[in-house]
Predict the 3D structure of the following.
Amino acid sequence: MAYNHSGKKHRLLKWLKILLPHSIIRFYPPQFILRDTLVSSTKRTIQQGNEAAVIVFNIKNLRQISEQIGIRQFEEFQCGLKLIYADVIKESVPLQDILALHDYNSDGITLILRMDSQKQSLLEIDGTTSLILQKVKQRLEQDYSQVRAVFETGYMFVEKKSASLRESINKAHQQAAAMAERKIHSEFNEMLYQMTKIIEGKNIHLLAQPIIDVATKQIKAYEILTRGPQGSLLESPLTLFSVARQTSRLYDLEMVVLEKTFEQVSKNGSSQDIFINFTPITLGNIRFIKDMKWILDKYKNVKAAQIVIEITERDDIDEVEGLIQNIRALRNMGFRIAVDDTGAGYASLHTISEIMPDIIKIDRTVIENIHHSTIKESMLKGLLLIAKEAGSLVVAEGIETEEEAKVLSRNKVDLAQGYFYARPARLEHA
Protein backbone atom coordinates (compact mmCIF):
# COMPACT_ATOMS: atom_id res chain seq x y z
CA MET A 1 0.00 0.00 0.00
CA ALA A 2 1.42 3.40 -0.96
CA TYR A 3 1.18 6.25 1.55
CA ASN A 4 2.56 9.39 -0.10
CA HIS A 5 1.49 11.99 2.49
CA SER A 6 4.61 12.76 4.55
CA GLY A 7 4.14 15.59 7.00
CA LYS A 8 0.37 15.35 6.47
CA LYS A 9 -0.67 17.55 9.37
CA HIS A 10 1.61 20.40 8.30
CA ARG A 11 0.55 20.14 4.65
CA LEU A 12 -3.15 19.95 5.54
CA LEU A 13 -2.92 23.15 7.58
CA LYS A 14 -1.06 24.80 4.70
CA TRP A 15 -3.79 23.80 2.23
CA LEU A 16 -6.53 25.03 4.55
CA LYS A 17 -4.83 28.40 4.76
CA ILE A 18 -5.00 28.52 0.97
CA LEU A 19 -8.63 27.38 0.99
CA LEU A 20 -9.93 29.70 3.66
CA PRO A 21 -8.86 32.73 5.70
CA HIS A 22 -7.13 31.52 8.87
CA SER A 23 -9.49 33.69 10.93
CA ILE A 24 -12.38 31.48 9.82
CA ILE A 25 -10.90 27.99 10.30
CA ARG A 26 -8.15 26.79 12.62
CA PHE A 27 -6.98 23.22 12.68
CA TYR A 28 -6.65 21.52 16.03
CA PRO A 29 -6.28 17.76 15.57
CA PRO A 30 -8.48 15.80 15.50
CA GLN A 31 -11.13 18.40 14.59
CA PHE A 32 -11.70 21.77 13.02
CA ILE A 33 -13.14 24.41 15.33
CA LEU A 34 -16.25 26.30 14.27
CA ARG A 35 -15.38 29.99 14.70
CA ASP A 36 -17.67 32.95 15.36
CA THR A 37 -16.60 34.36 12.00
CA LEU A 38 -18.38 31.44 10.33
CA VAL A 39 -21.61 32.53 11.99
CA SER A 40 -21.10 36.11 10.81
CA SER A 41 -20.23 35.03 7.24
CA THR A 42 -23.28 32.74 7.16
CA LYS A 43 -25.44 35.58 8.46
CA ARG A 44 -24.11 37.87 5.74
CA THR A 45 -24.80 35.20 3.12
CA ILE A 46 -28.43 34.88 4.26
CA GLN A 47 -28.92 38.65 4.49
CA GLN A 48 -27.82 38.89 0.85
CA GLY A 49 -30.70 36.58 -0.09
CA ASN A 50 -28.58 33.47 -0.59
CA GLU A 51 -28.67 30.01 0.96
CA ALA A 52 -26.05 28.32 3.15
CA ALA A 53 -25.81 24.60 2.41
CA VAL A 54 -24.19 22.10 4.80
CA ILE A 55 -22.77 19.00 3.06
CA VAL A 56 -21.53 16.01 5.05
CA PHE A 57 -19.11 13.44 3.61
CA ASN A 58 -18.75 10.25 5.68
CA ILE A 59 -17.09 6.87 5.16
CA LYS A 60 -19.45 4.09 6.17
CA ASN A 61 -16.86 1.35 6.65
CA LEU A 62 -14.20 3.19 8.68
CA ARG A 63 -14.03 0.41 11.29
CA GLN A 64 -13.31 -2.23 8.64
CA ILE A 65 -10.61 -0.01 7.09
CA SER A 66 -8.99 0.47 10.52
CA GLU A 67 -8.93 -3.28 11.09
CA GLN A 68 -7.54 -3.85 7.60
CA ILE A 69 -4.57 -1.47 7.70
CA GLY A 70 -3.84 -1.11 11.43
CA ILE A 71 -4.13 1.83 13.84
CA ARG A 72 -0.94 3.69 12.88
CA GLN A 73 -1.57 3.60 9.15
CA PHE A 74 -5.26 4.33 9.77
CA GLU A 75 -4.36 7.63 11.48
CA GLU A 76 -2.20 8.53 8.48
CA PHE A 77 -5.08 7.56 6.19
CA GLN A 78 -7.53 9.86 8.02
CA CYS A 79 -5.17 12.81 7.88
CA GLY A 80 -4.36 12.12 4.24
CA LEU A 81 -8.07 11.90 3.45
CA LYS A 82 -8.63 15.38 4.87
CA LEU A 83 -5.81 16.68 2.71
CA ILE A 84 -7.44 15.08 -0.34
CA TYR A 85 -10.78 16.70 0.51
CA ALA A 86 -9.13 20.11 0.89
CA ASP A 87 -7.32 19.69 -2.42
CA VAL A 88 -10.41 18.48 -4.32
CA ILE A 89 -12.73 21.13 -2.90
CA LYS A 90 -10.26 23.85 -3.82
CA GLU A 91 -10.37 22.56 -7.41
CA SER A 92 -14.13 22.01 -7.57
CA VAL A 93 -15.77 24.96 -5.82
CA PRO A 94 -15.25 28.74 -6.24
CA LEU A 95 -13.35 29.97 -3.18
CA GLN A 96 -15.81 32.80 -2.59
CA ASP A 97 -18.60 30.23 -2.13
CA ILE A 98 -16.82 28.29 0.65
CA LEU A 99 -17.95 29.38 4.12
CA ALA A 100 -16.25 26.56 6.03
CA LEU A 101 -14.53 23.20 5.79
CA HIS A 102 -14.28 21.29 9.05
CA ASP A 103 -15.00 18.04 10.84
CA TYR A 104 -17.50 18.06 13.65
CA ASN A 105 -16.03 14.66 14.53
CA SER A 106 -13.07 12.65 13.31
CA ASP A 107 -15.17 10.37 11.10
CA GLY A 108 -16.14 12.77 8.33
CA ILE A 109 -15.77 16.14 6.65
CA THR A 110 -18.35 18.92 6.54
CA LEU A 111 -18.40 21.60 3.82
CA ILE A 112 -20.56 24.72 4.20
CA LEU A 113 -21.29 26.51 0.92
CA ARG A 114 -22.87 29.76 -0.14
CA MET A 115 -25.50 29.10 -2.79
CA ASP A 116 -27.01 31.84 -4.94
CA SER A 117 -30.72 31.06 -4.71
CA GLN A 118 -31.36 32.93 -7.99
CA LYS A 119 -28.84 30.94 -10.02
CA GLN A 120 -28.44 27.59 -8.33
CA SER A 121 -30.83 24.75 -7.83
CA LEU A 122 -31.34 21.52 -5.97
CA LEU A 123 -29.38 19.49 -8.49
CA GLU A 124 -26.61 22.07 -8.43
CA ILE A 125 -25.74 20.90 -4.93
CA ASP A 126 -26.23 17.27 -6.00
CA GLY A 127 -23.82 17.88 -8.87
CA THR A 128 -21.25 19.59 -6.64
CA THR A 129 -21.46 16.75 -4.10
CA SER A 130 -21.09 14.09 -6.79
CA LEU A 131 -18.15 15.87 -8.43
CA ILE A 132 -16.25 16.19 -5.14
CA LEU A 133 -16.94 12.56 -4.26
CA GLN A 134 -15.85 11.31 -7.69
CA LYS A 135 -12.54 13.18 -7.45
CA VAL A 136 -11.93 12.06 -3.85
CA LYS A 137 -12.46 8.43 -4.88
CA GLN A 138 -10.02 8.83 -7.77
CA ARG A 139 -7.37 10.29 -5.46
CA LEU A 140 -7.91 7.53 -2.91
CA GLU A 141 -7.39 4.91 -5.59
CA GLN A 142 -4.06 6.57 -6.46
CA ASP A 143 -2.75 7.15 -2.93
CA TYR A 144 -4.38 4.30 -0.95
CA SER A 145 -4.88 1.62 -3.57
CA GLN A 146 -5.78 -1.18 -1.12
CA VAL A 147 -8.46 0.80 0.74
CA ARG A 148 -12.04 0.28 -0.42
CA ALA A 149 -13.99 3.13 1.14
CA VAL A 150 -17.80 3.19 1.07
CA PHE A 151 -18.94 6.82 1.05
CA GLU A 152 -22.22 8.31 2.22
CA THR A 153 -23.24 11.93 1.77
CA GLY A 154 -26.10 14.19 2.79
CA TYR A 155 -26.90 17.88 2.76
CA MET A 156 -29.24 20.40 4.34
CA PHE A 157 -29.81 24.15 4.18
CA VAL A 158 -29.35 26.45 7.18
CA GLU A 159 -32.72 27.61 8.48
CA LYS A 160 -33.05 31.37 7.98
CA LYS A 161 -35.67 32.15 10.61
CA SER A 162 -33.99 30.57 13.64
CA ALA A 163 -33.41 32.74 16.73
CA SER A 164 -29.81 31.47 16.99
CA LEU A 165 -27.82 31.12 13.77
CA ARG A 166 -25.18 28.99 15.52
CA GLU A 167 -27.89 26.56 16.60
CA SER A 168 -29.32 26.61 13.08
CA ILE A 169 -25.91 25.72 11.60
CA ASN A 170 -25.48 22.87 14.11
CA LYS A 171 -29.03 21.64 13.40
CA ALA A 172 -28.42 21.69 9.65
CA HIS A 173 -25.26 19.66 10.23
CA GLN A 174 -27.15 17.08 12.29
CA GLN A 175 -29.80 16.81 9.59
CA ALA A 176 -27.20 16.54 6.80
CA ALA A 177 -25.47 13.78 8.77
CA ALA A 178 -28.83 12.07 9.18
CA MET A 179 -29.36 12.19 5.43
CA ALA A 180 -25.91 10.68 4.91
CA GLU A 181 -26.60 7.86 7.36
CA ARG A 182 -30.16 7.43 6.06
CA LYS A 183 -32.52 5.31 8.15
CA ILE A 184 -30.05 4.73 10.97
CA HIS A 185 -30.46 8.22 12.38
CA SER A 186 -33.55 9.48 14.22
CA GLU A 187 -33.24 12.89 12.51
CA PHE A 188 -33.69 11.17 9.15
CA ASN A 189 -36.81 9.40 10.37
CA GLU A 190 -38.22 12.70 11.65
CA MET A 191 -37.68 14.41 8.29
CA LEU A 192 -39.16 11.43 6.45
CA TYR A 193 -42.19 11.71 8.75
CA GLN A 194 -42.54 15.46 8.07
CA MET A 195 -42.22 14.93 4.32
CA THR A 196 -44.81 12.14 4.40
CA LYS A 197 -47.21 14.44 6.29
CA ILE A 198 -46.74 17.18 3.69
CA ILE A 199 -47.36 14.79 0.79
CA GLU A 200 -50.34 13.04 2.34
CA GLY A 201 -51.91 16.35 3.42
CA LYS A 202 -50.86 18.11 0.19
CA ASN A 203 -49.60 20.82 2.52
CA ILE A 204 -47.83 23.06 0.03
CA HIS A 205 -48.74 26.42 -1.46
CA LEU A 206 -48.11 27.54 -4.99
CA LEU A 207 -46.91 30.82 -6.41
CA ALA A 208 -47.24 31.92 -10.03
CA GLN A 209 -44.70 34.15 -11.77
CA PRO A 210 -45.91 35.88 -14.96
CA ILE A 211 -44.16 35.21 -18.27
CA ILE A 212 -44.36 38.33 -20.43
CA ASP A 213 -44.50 38.89 -24.18
CA VAL A 214 -41.42 41.10 -24.69
CA ALA A 215 -42.96 43.01 -27.62
CA THR A 216 -46.45 43.69 -26.19
CA LYS A 217 -45.68 43.52 -22.42
CA GLN A 218 -48.78 41.34 -21.99
CA ILE A 219 -48.89 38.29 -19.71
CA LYS A 220 -48.72 35.16 -21.85
CA ALA A 221 -48.20 32.47 -19.22
CA TYR A 222 -47.37 31.70 -15.60
CA GLU A 223 -44.62 29.52 -14.13
CA ILE A 224 -45.60 27.59 -11.00
CA LEU A 225 -43.27 27.92 -8.00
CA THR A 226 -43.63 25.72 -4.91
CA ARG A 227 -43.29 26.52 -1.20
CA GLY A 228 -43.60 24.19 1.78
CA PRO A 229 -45.69 24.77 4.92
CA GLN A 230 -45.47 28.43 5.91
CA GLY A 231 -43.13 29.16 8.81
CA SER A 232 -41.61 25.66 8.79
CA LEU A 233 -38.10 24.45 7.96
CA LEU A 234 -39.47 23.04 4.71
CA GLU A 235 -41.02 26.30 3.48
CA SER A 236 -37.91 26.99 1.37
CA PRO A 237 -38.19 25.17 -1.98
CA LEU A 238 -34.51 24.20 -1.89
CA THR A 239 -34.93 22.54 1.51
CA LEU A 240 -38.30 21.03 0.62
CA PHE A 241 -37.09 19.38 -2.58
CA SER A 242 -33.70 18.38 -1.10
CA VAL A 243 -35.44 16.49 1.72
CA ALA A 244 -37.87 14.95 -0.78
CA ARG A 245 -35.02 13.81 -3.00
CA GLN A 246 -32.96 12.36 -0.16
CA THR A 247 -35.94 10.57 1.41
CA SER A 248 -36.99 9.11 -1.99
CA ARG A 249 -40.25 11.11 -2.02
CA LEU A 250 -39.42 13.46 -4.90
CA TYR A 251 -41.85 11.85 -7.36
CA ASP A 252 -44.69 11.99 -4.84
CA LEU A 253 -44.00 15.66 -4.05
CA GLU A 254 -43.88 16.67 -7.72
CA MET A 255 -47.18 14.87 -8.34
CA VAL A 256 -48.76 16.83 -5.46
CA VAL A 257 -47.54 20.02 -7.16
CA LEU A 258 -49.10 18.83 -10.45
CA GLU A 259 -52.47 18.00 -8.92
CA LYS A 260 -52.69 21.20 -6.85
CA THR A 261 -51.82 23.24 -9.94
CA PHE A 262 -54.61 21.59 -11.95
CA GLU A 263 -57.01 22.06 -9.05
CA GLN A 264 -56.28 25.79 -8.76
CA VAL A 265 -56.27 26.45 -12.50
CA SER A 266 -59.63 24.70 -12.67
CA LYS A 267 -61.00 26.91 -9.88
CA ASN A 268 -59.58 30.09 -11.39
CA GLY A 269 -60.94 29.29 -14.82
CA SER A 270 -57.68 30.67 -16.20
CA SER A 271 -56.99 30.43 -19.92
CA GLN A 272 -53.30 31.40 -19.64
CA ASP A 273 -50.58 28.86 -20.36
CA ILE A 274 -49.09 27.25 -17.24
CA PHE A 275 -45.47 26.09 -16.91
CA ILE A 276 -44.94 23.27 -14.39
CA ASN A 277 -41.42 22.12 -13.46
CA PHE A 278 -40.45 18.46 -13.35
CA THR A 279 -37.11 16.78 -12.81
CA PRO A 280 -36.07 14.24 -15.46
CA ILE A 281 -36.23 11.52 -12.78
CA THR A 282 -39.95 12.20 -12.28
CA LEU A 283 -40.68 12.58 -16.00
CA GLY A 284 -39.03 9.22 -16.71
CA ASN A 285 -40.97 7.41 -13.96
CA ILE A 286 -42.96 4.44 -15.23
CA ARG A 287 -46.04 5.74 -13.37
CA PHE A 288 -45.94 9.28 -14.77
CA ILE A 289 -48.14 8.94 -17.90
CA LYS A 290 -50.79 6.92 -16.06
CA ASP A 291 -50.90 9.49 -13.22
CA MET A 292 -51.06 12.37 -15.70
CA LYS A 293 -54.03 10.78 -17.51
CA TRP A 294 -55.79 10.36 -14.15
CA ILE A 295 -55.32 14.06 -13.31
CA LEU A 296 -56.49 15.18 -16.77
CA ASP A 297 -59.60 13.06 -16.35
CA LYS A 298 -60.24 14.51 -12.88
CA TYR A 299 -59.94 18.16 -13.99
CA LYS A 300 -61.63 18.06 -17.37
CA ASN A 301 -61.74 21.84 -17.86
CA VAL A 302 -57.91 22.03 -17.80
CA LYS A 303 -56.65 21.11 -21.25
CA ALA A 304 -53.29 19.53 -22.02
CA ALA A 305 -52.63 22.24 -24.63
CA GLN A 306 -52.63 24.82 -21.83
CA ILE A 307 -49.87 23.07 -19.87
CA VAL A 308 -46.14 23.34 -20.59
CA ILE A 309 -44.05 20.55 -19.05
CA GLU A 310 -40.77 22.20 -18.10
CA ILE A 311 -37.77 19.88 -17.78
CA THR A 312 -35.79 21.50 -15.03
CA GLU A 313 -32.38 20.85 -13.44
CA ARG A 314 -29.31 19.44 -15.13
CA ASP A 315 -29.69 15.68 -14.95
CA ASP A 316 -28.23 13.77 -17.86
CA ILE A 317 -31.31 12.73 -19.83
CA ASP A 318 -29.44 9.77 -21.29
CA GLU A 319 -29.28 8.23 -17.82
CA VAL A 320 -33.03 8.49 -17.14
CA GLU A 321 -34.69 5.39 -18.52
CA GLY A 322 -38.13 5.99 -20.01
CA LEU A 323 -37.79 9.80 -20.26
CA ILE A 324 -37.83 10.12 -24.06
CA GLN A 325 -40.66 7.61 -24.37
CA ASN A 326 -42.75 9.51 -21.79
CA ILE A 327 -42.08 12.83 -23.53
CA ARG A 328 -43.40 11.37 -26.79
CA ALA A 329 -46.51 10.21 -24.96
CA LEU A 330 -47.01 13.66 -23.40
CA ARG A 331 -46.76 15.29 -26.82
CA ASN A 332 -49.33 12.87 -28.20
CA MET A 333 -51.63 13.93 -25.35
CA GLY A 334 -51.28 17.59 -26.37
CA PHE A 335 -48.73 18.88 -23.85
CA ARG A 336 -45.85 21.13 -24.88
CA ILE A 337 -42.29 20.62 -23.64
CA ALA A 338 -39.86 23.27 -22.38
CA VAL A 339 -36.18 22.88 -21.50
CA ASP A 340 -34.87 24.95 -18.60
CA ASP A 341 -31.37 26.35 -17.90
CA THR A 342 -30.32 26.62 -21.55
CA GLY A 343 -26.88 28.20 -21.77
CA ALA A 344 -25.81 26.94 -18.36
CA GLY A 345 -23.74 24.10 -19.82
CA TYR A 346 -23.43 21.29 -22.33
CA ALA A 347 -26.22 19.22 -20.76
CA SER A 348 -29.01 21.65 -21.68
CA LEU A 349 -27.80 21.95 -25.31
CA HIS A 350 -27.63 18.17 -25.55
CA THR A 351 -31.19 18.00 -24.16
CA ILE A 352 -32.39 20.38 -26.90
CA SER A 353 -30.91 18.20 -29.65
CA GLU A 354 -32.48 15.07 -28.17
CA ILE A 355 -35.93 16.45 -27.32
CA MET A 356 -36.45 19.32 -29.80
CA PRO A 357 -38.53 21.26 -27.26
CA ASP A 358 -41.39 23.60 -28.06
CA ILE A 359 -39.93 26.21 -25.72
CA ILE A 360 -36.35 26.99 -24.68
CA LYS A 361 -35.74 28.87 -21.44
CA ILE A 362 -32.45 30.80 -21.38
CA ASP A 363 -30.65 30.63 -18.05
CA ARG A 364 -30.19 33.68 -15.84
CA THR A 365 -26.39 33.32 -16.06
CA VAL A 366 -26.60 34.38 -19.73
CA ILE A 367 -28.95 37.30 -19.03
CA GLU A 368 -27.34 38.84 -15.93
CA ASN A 369 -25.65 42.16 -16.88
CA ILE A 370 -25.95 41.25 -20.55
CA HIS A 371 -26.01 44.98 -21.41
CA HIS A 372 -22.39 45.18 -20.20
CA SER A 373 -21.16 42.13 -22.12
CA THR A 374 -20.92 41.76 -25.88
CA ILE A 375 -19.92 38.11 -25.34
CA LYS A 376 -23.14 37.40 -23.46
CA GLU A 377 -25.19 39.12 -26.15
CA SER A 378 -23.42 36.99 -28.76
CA MET A 379 -24.29 33.90 -26.69
CA LEU A 380 -27.93 35.05 -26.65
CA LYS A 381 -27.90 35.45 -30.45
CA GLY A 382 -26.43 31.97 -30.81
CA LEU A 383 -29.13 30.46 -28.61
CA LEU A 384 -31.80 32.30 -30.61
CA LEU A 385 -30.41 30.72 -33.79
CA ILE A 386 -30.50 27.29 -32.14
CA ALA A 387 -34.11 27.92 -31.10
CA LYS A 388 -35.06 28.99 -34.61
CA GLU A 389 -33.49 25.84 -36.04
CA ALA A 390 -35.39 23.71 -33.50
CA GLY A 391 -38.64 25.60 -34.10
CA SER A 392 -38.77 26.66 -30.45
CA LEU A 393 -40.07 29.77 -28.72
CA VAL A 394 -37.60 31.46 -26.34
CA VAL A 395 -38.17 32.57 -22.74
CA ALA A 396 -35.42 34.63 -21.06
CA GLU A 397 -35.32 34.08 -17.29
CA GLY A 398 -34.34 36.32 -14.40
CA ILE A 399 -34.75 39.79 -15.94
CA GLU A 400 -34.07 42.29 -13.15
CA THR A 401 -33.24 45.60 -14.87
CA GLU A 402 -34.55 47.78 -17.67
CA GLU A 403 -31.16 47.57 -19.41
CA GLU A 404 -31.38 43.77 -19.57
CA ALA A 405 -34.93 44.05 -20.92
CA LYS A 406 -33.79 46.42 -23.69
CA VAL A 407 -31.23 43.87 -24.90
CA LEU A 408 -34.02 41.30 -25.16
CA SER A 409 -36.18 43.72 -27.15
CA ARG A 410 -33.52 44.56 -29.73
CA ASN A 411 -32.78 40.86 -30.20
CA LYS A 412 -36.50 40.08 -30.61
CA VAL A 413 -36.67 37.53 -27.77
CA ASP A 414 -40.20 36.10 -27.60
CA LEU A 415 -40.95 35.91 -23.87
CA ALA A 416 -39.35 36.89 -20.58
CA GLN A 417 -39.84 36.61 -16.84
CA GLY A 418 -38.20 38.19 -13.82
CA TYR A 419 -38.61 40.76 -11.06
CA PHE A 420 -38.32 43.62 -13.57
CA TYR A 421 -41.67 42.55 -15.04
CA ALA A 422 -43.47 41.01 -12.05
CA ARG A 423 -42.84 39.13 -8.82
CA PRO A 424 -44.52 35.80 -8.05
CA ALA A 425 -47.99 35.90 -6.43
CA ARG A 426 -50.22 33.25 -4.91
CA LEU A 427 -51.61 31.09 -7.70
CA GLU A 428 -55.20 31.63 -6.58
CA HIS A 429 -54.70 35.40 -7.08
CA ALA A 430 -53.09 35.09 -10.52
In short: The first helix runs from residue 8 to 19. The radius of gyration is 23 Å. Residues 191-429 form a domain with the TIM Barrel fold (CATH 3.20.20.450). The chain has 16 helices and 15 strands.
